[in-house]
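hey team, just a heads up i'm posting the complex here instead of the shared drive bc the drive is being weird again. everything in one block, sequence lines first with there labels, then the predicted structure for the whole assembly after. its two chains so it's a bit long, scroll down
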Amino acid sequence: MKSSIADLLSIPLHAPTAHHFDENVKGPVIVSIDPVQPESRTQLLVKAYHVLTTHLQPSIHMALLGDETDGSFAESVEHQINELNLNLAWKTQPSSIDELVTYFKRSHVYCTVSEYPNFEGIEIAATFGLPIVAVDADGLKSFSGDSAVVLPRDAGPLLIAEAMLEVVNS
Amino acid sequence: MADEDKHAVDDLIERLHERVEERRAAGDYPDGLEEDLDQHFRRIAFHRTKADTTALDEAVAKLDASMDFSPRAIEIESSFPGGEMFHRALDKAMARQRQAMLEQMSEFAEVVRETVHVLADAVKNPQSHVHGDLVGRLDVILERLDRLEHNSSVSGK
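-- predicted structure starts here --
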């Protein structure tokens, strides 16, 4: 797995996605690839992002790239994003590996608040040199090493938002 | 993780905690912000709860599987001596009427089946119908609940 993740670095950009970033994304990007489901606590991630962009620094984008395994929950998250007017956040599922790679190459921070974090996502983020903000979960600290800011398990949206801001600006 | 790195991350988290408290004190974070965000998502998720329609789906599938009206399903065997021959003769004599009845039944059943499918879809899709009275009452109750929770969290500080 390690060699295949390292191989991602040599994959060229997905031209339409790169064009989208060039045209529409003016500012730092937070990315996450945890599945959009209750166990991933995607709603907590959106709350933290809301605090970040509404109360701390408005020009930050967020891309949620996880599979939508729970349609009803994904719909709720979509409504949450819309009702909070988070115009710089979007939910999408890359359809190819080069599209996924483009997201990682053009992002600035990887974030996971999941109870069951996607370790592969963290490994990919580390491979692309992205700083990681995470909320503690089983095995996370030993896995992520010193490449992550691992917040306590009970971290709320305000603390997560502060960590995002710190890492984006550092 | 090396001890130095661990201390650096621990120090950072400590600083982040302090920053949260400083911003709260300065009013950068409105009172009850976290509770408001919790309630907001709870309200969205509550409205998107879907009904369990398993029994409905099973009943509709059973209806779909029962649409094959055929003379083959009419038994002509009999336990009485010569009964089967009598039923065969009767079956032959009534064939025209029986076929017409089956066709009428099939047409009627098809209309019923289509109607049941339309109703099932309407039940499963909350957007297809509105309970205006319930929605209005729920909104009032949820707003009151939000206010009460907000007030109690503010007074509890």
